[in-house]
């Protein structure tokens, strides 16, 4: 039996070093405003600077309270009247000389910052984000009227234990902004489907298009249902991907095929 439909739109924006962050912010804000009528709009990881543009992280760092991306996305969410997962920004906290974090921002339809999530797993091994940023330590969910979101970012995708904790915290839709490289597109697709299947959740994963810091981006933003079926998938170029999803599919899938009930290792007490 079908329930209320949720309209979700992923904005797979191109990150091009020839465009300034200010211009890209204006363009992203206009794209968000054009989505009035959607329930949830999602942007990718670190789209103001570029997820691999680590030389620009310090100069592009922002505060969550009054920073240029937070201000622009708050206004755009309010004008469109949508829940906006604004992807992530380079956050510096405390301002002006604290550590950097890769922080995702979720705005409510009235423009207030509802939830922030600091990426837990930092990518780069001994370089880039892994050495320039501090990691978050909190599992973050957000209860929306349309369902409970579980927040994770890009490289987190490779750590399934984080997603189990999100499911234990009630997540029904995983929202994963990313700046995933084209050369590992095959991993992206398999890992996203695996996270959806093993946790019986919707996955909404929004990547970037274009090439920055000499790293061609995969694009291929995806929306996957709790059975692992791909509901929508973008190509490699900039694209607006809209899908209608039925949140009641989470409970229905878990009841029809109750694998989560059979967990033995690390399962919460029943
Ligand atoms: N921005 C990232 O976290 C990139 C992750 C990545 O390239 C990978 O896991 O592969």
TrEMBL record:
Keywords: Hydrolase
Origin: domain of life: Bacteria
GO terms of molecular function: hydrolase activity
UniProt key word Isomerase: no
Pfam families: CN_hydrolase
Domain CN hydrolase span(s) in chain numbering: 6-247
Alphabetized PANTHER family for the sequence: DEAMINATED GLUTATHIONE AMIDASE, NITRILASE-RELATED
Protein family according to the UniProt entry: Belongs to the carbon-nitrogen hydrolase superfamily. NIT1/NIT2 family.
UniProt-recorded name of the protein: Predicted amidohydrolase
Organism lineage string: Bacteria, Bacillati, Actinomycetota, Actinomycetes, Kitasatosporales
